[in-house]
Amino acid sequence: MQVILLHPHFQAKSLTLTNRHLLMVVLVFMSGVIGGAALLYNVTANHSIASKWSFMREARASNSLGNAADQDKYIKENLAAMAIKLGEMQAQLMRLDALGERVQGLAGVKPEEFNFKELPGRGGAESSSLGNREMHALSMSEFGKLLEATEKNIEHRADYMNVVETSLMRDKIKFKLLPTIQPVNVSYNSSGFGWRIDPFSGRGAFHEGIDFAAPTGSTIVAAAGGVVIAAEYHHQFGNMLEIDHGNDIVTRYAHASKLLMKVGDIVRRGQQIAHVGSTGRSTGAHLHFEVLVKGVQQDPHKFLSAGAAQAKIGALASK
């Protein structure tokens, strides 16, 4: 191919283009097109990646803010529930302390030996010296589980203490209904329970009670709490009083100069019920005291000895 170049200031020239020259021109043109396309793609791709990373960063930031808000809400809700449970446990502990003090009094335990109002001493080696048992902070779920376990333990101990209190109270009431207090404040009895020489007939006779010699008018008290079932004059016992203590136990007080109770009266343990005298079949001022179980006379000394032993234990415990 021949090309003629024309210019107003220069002489016309002619160029001869071969197939080789045409091929080079086509290659240069195609290289320019490809290079421009590559440049345009690179610019577009970089802008897309930058936009994508910006969107991902915004999404992550938004997700992080959402998780923080949810976590804060979760913590607040759990703290509120735990605060309510803690208040209930504090109320249970107050009731348990009061119950413990009642049981302590019933059992005769000294306050200084077991004080419910003081925290018990605790201690031990540091965790760092125990090998692999390292200390760690409690998580919210671990703390909640410990709180629930403690609440159950408090409930179980309260139930146990209630059972113990009921048992001790029942034993104390039962003991109070036993005739264990000496009815007259004297240091000896003039005639014991069992066989003796009858002071009137001079023959052997079974004495069904204990005689306490005391001046006329001396105070007679109930050996135990109960209900008066007899307050009358008996031709042998004189002015006589009988008290029913329950469980088929009855006490009899005879030869009184004056009765201070009537049938149906409820008497307390140690309450004044009569005055010593010498009425009925009697040789002098004294109290004839009997203890009957299911209508059969028992040795009053056994009951009075048990009361004296219990009083001694109580005196030692109070020191």
Keywords:
23% strand, rod-shaped, alpha+beta, Glucose Permease (Domain IIA), 319 residues, 9-stranded antiparallel sheet
Structural description of this entry:
The chain has 319 residues and is an alpha+beta fold. Among the domains are: 2-72; 194-318, Distorted Sandwich (Glucose Permease (Domain IIA)). Helices cover 45% and strands 23% of the residues. The strands form 3 sheets. Strands 5, 6, 7, 8, 9, 10, 11, 12 and 13 form a 9-stranded antiparallel β-sheet that branches. Strands 1-2 form a two-stranded antiparallel sheet. Helix 1 (19-107) runs parallel beside helix 2. It is rod-shaped and about 180 Å long. The chain starts with a strand and ends with a helix.
Give a nutshell description of this structure.
With 319 residues, this protein is of the alpha+beta class. It is built from 3 helices and 13 strands; from the N terminus they run E-E-H-H-E-E-E-E-E-E-E-E-E-E-E-H.
Instruction: Let me know the number of strands.
Output: 13
Report on the biggest sheet. 9 strands, antiparallel
What would CATH call the class of the domain at 194-318?
A: Mainly Beta
Approximately how much beta-strand content do the residues carry? 15-25%
Overall morphology: rod-shaped
CATH topology of the domain at 194-318: Glucose Permease (Domain IIA)
CATH architecture tag of the domain at 194-318: Distorted Sandwich
End-to-end gap:
138 Å
The CATH homologous superfamily of the domain at 194-318 is named: Glucose Permease (Domain IIA)
Q: Mean of residue pLDDT? A: 76
Helix % is: 40-55%
**Structural class, judged by helices and strands?**
alpha+beta
Radius of gyration (Å): 53 Å
Q: Runs with pLDDT <50, length 5+?
A: none
